């Protein structure tokens, strides 16, 4: 069983002590001080952006404009994440809907159904299930669905079911992760539905943090926890992903959460109000794309149903009107907020070998493509800031392979090596900025130096996976290859 190492103690006088001093201030004063400190920290990047903009050549130059856009986007993302994000498990959110009465209040101690679908995870499933059973929350229902595992996982689960208070469901035929989780939902009786992945380990206080956030903020229809890598001792690739995960949650999700529109409540720890997803579970399980069943997009698509049900919900329910999930109880379509809590911690096993890592990234690209055709249809309705973050990210992902071809293929072939070097230099600069943000949050951890490596990996390798994912979109296989 995996043993988690406690986090290192911050140095005296570091960010933790500063954070404690800020917390002692009046909320409005604290927010003003934090905004000022963030602006001061971003001043070098702002000056660089101003200088490059003034020196912008006449006419439209795609590489220069793209570089300035990325720099401006990075500055904006960092500013929002550090100055506007509030952890809903720790304090009330500053941005809330005007009419909170539209959202039904939760009980002070709501019942929580903690759900897991697993297939062929014999080596790691015991650590996951035991961490689920060990969470510090009184009213907890555990449901585990074995999706026709054939590697000995079933035997491990039967042994755990005899020891721990969990409901175990064994499927004779592999149906895929989404359908297996919907089978678990059929047995769930909680006010909140929490999902995790079979290669994860949950912090003991993670469920309580999610509950605190959602009871305090009834407008939250979904909530993402904070994920890091569990197996950082397996090599450089794992450490690089760990630092990248920290930034994706601490910065990207925090910025989206500031506007109540986190676009992906990630699978390692995903919390949902029952009312927010119950009627849409059949649409999720039977999702089709390009005329065929689509077995990916488990995280993004379910989040999309929460974000967009105000505009898409009635049509989705009409398509599945005969399902018990719709027929037995029709919940109103509300404009739910989707948030993120840094307090709810979870660790996941990341791929430690290049082949497994690339396969994972291809699955994620396929999920991105499919979800773009759903969430992209309504995200503009959720306000200009949320729309800018979402469509800005889409633009960056779509432009990445184009820029990679131009700078890594076209430029060398046309003896424009300086253009290639400038491109790679900009990529490294961006990675260093994200790395310094990591160092700010973790002053004693030198792993921040791995972040520029992830930026180089993204532009030189991962950018090429989007076209490949598009060409192989119909290959639908749910399997977790060995790390």
Features of the shown structure:
disordered N terminus, alpha/beta, 8-stranded mixed β-sheet, about 50% helix, globular, about 475 residues, 17 helices
List the helices and strands and how they pair.
Layout: H1 15-23, H2 27-54, H3 62-83, E1 112-118, H4 125-133, E2 140-147, H5 153-163, E3 166-171, H6 177-187, E4 192-196, E5 200-202, H7 206-216, E6 220-229, H8 236-257, E7 270-273, H9 274-277, H10 281-285, E8 288-289, E9 292-293, H11 298-319, H12 324-327, E10 337-348, H13 354-375, H14 384-413, H15 417-441, H16 451-460, H17 465-471
Parallel strand pairs: 1-2, 1-4, 2-3, 6-10
Antiparallel strand pairs: 4-7, 5-10, 6-7, 8-9
Helix pairs in contact: 2-3, 3-8, 3-14, 3-15, 4-5, 11-13, 13-17, 14-15, 15-16
Task: Please give a structural write-up.
The chain has helices at residues 15-23, 27-54, 62-83, 125-133, 153-163, 177-187, 206-216, 236-257, 274-277, 281-285, 298-319, 324-327, 354-375, 384-413, 417-441, 451-460, 465-471; strands spanning 112-118, 140-147, 166-171, 192-196, 200-202, 220-229, 270-273, 288-289, 292-293, 337-348. The protein starts with 14 loop residues before the first helix and ends in a 12-residue tail after the last helix. Mean pLDDT is 87; it is low at 1-14. By secondary structure, the chain is an alpha/beta fold. The chain is built from 17 helices and 10 strands. The protein has an 8-stranded mixed β-sheet with strand order 3-2-1-4-7-6-10-5, sandwiched between helices. Among the domains are: 13-85; 100-350, Alpha-Beta Complex (Spore Coat Polysaccharide Biosynthesis Protein SpsA, Chain A). Helix content is 52%, strand content 12%.
């Amino acid at each position: 069983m995996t043993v988690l190492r406690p986090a290192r103690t911050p140095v005296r006088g570091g960010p933790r002590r500063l954070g404690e001093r800020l917390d002692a201030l009046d909320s409005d004063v604290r927010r003003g001080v934090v905004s000022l400190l963030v602006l001061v920290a971003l001043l070098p990047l702002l000056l660089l952006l101003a200088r490059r903009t003034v020196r912008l050549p006449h006419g439209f130059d795609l590489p220069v404009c793209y570089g300035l856009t990325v720099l401006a986007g990075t500055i904006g993302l960092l500013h929002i994440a550090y100055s506007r994000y509030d952890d809903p498990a720790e304090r009330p959110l500053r941005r809330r809907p005007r009419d909170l009465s539209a959202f039904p209040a939760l009980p002070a101690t709501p019942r929580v159904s903690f759900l897991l679908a697993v297939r062929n995870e014999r080596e790691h499933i015991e650590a996951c299930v035991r961490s689920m059973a060990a969470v510090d929350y009184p009213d907890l229902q555990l449901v585990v669905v074995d999706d026709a595992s054939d590697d000995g996982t079933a035997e491990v689960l039967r042994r755990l079911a005899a020891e721990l208070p969990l409901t175990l469901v064994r499927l004779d035929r592999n149906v895929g992760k989404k359908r297996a989780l919907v089978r678990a939902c059929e047995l769930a009786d909680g006010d909140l539905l929490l999902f995790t992945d079979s290669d994860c380990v949950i912090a003991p206080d993670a469920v309580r943090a999610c509950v605190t956030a959602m009871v305090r903020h009834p407008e939250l229809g979904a909530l993402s926890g904070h994920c890091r890598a569990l197996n950082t001792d397996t090599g450089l690739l794992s450490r690089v992903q760990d630092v990248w995960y920290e930034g994706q949650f601490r910065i990207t999700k925090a910025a989206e959460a500031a506007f109540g529109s986190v676009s992906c409540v990630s699978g390692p720890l995903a919390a949902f109000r029952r009312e927010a997803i119950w009627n849409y579970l059949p649409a999720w399980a039977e999702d089709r794309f390009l005329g065929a069943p689509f077995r990916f997009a488990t995280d993004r698509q379910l989040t999309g149903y929460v974000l967009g049900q105000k505009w898409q919900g009635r049509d989705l329910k009409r398509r599945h009107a005969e399902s018990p999930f719709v027929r037995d109880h029709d919940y109103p379509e509300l404009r739910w907020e989707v948030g993120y809590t840094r307090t709810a911690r979870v660790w996941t096993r990341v791929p430690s070998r290049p082949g497994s890592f690339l396969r994972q990234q291809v699955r994620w690209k396929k999920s991105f493509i499919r979800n773009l055709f759903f969430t992209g249809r309504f995200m503009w309705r959720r306000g200009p800031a949320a729309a800018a973050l979402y469509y800005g990210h889409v633009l960056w992902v779509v432009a990445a392979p184009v820029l990679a071809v131009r700078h890594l293929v076209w430029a060398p072939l046309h003896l424009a090596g300086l253009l290639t070097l400038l491109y790679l230099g900009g990529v490294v600069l961006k990675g260093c900025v994200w790395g310094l943000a990591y160092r700010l949050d973790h002053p004693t951890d030198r792993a921040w130096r791995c972040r520029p490596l992830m930026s180089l990996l993204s532009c030189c390798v991962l950018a090429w996976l989007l076209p490949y994912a598009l060409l192989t979109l119909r290959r639908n296989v749910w399997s977790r290859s060995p790390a």
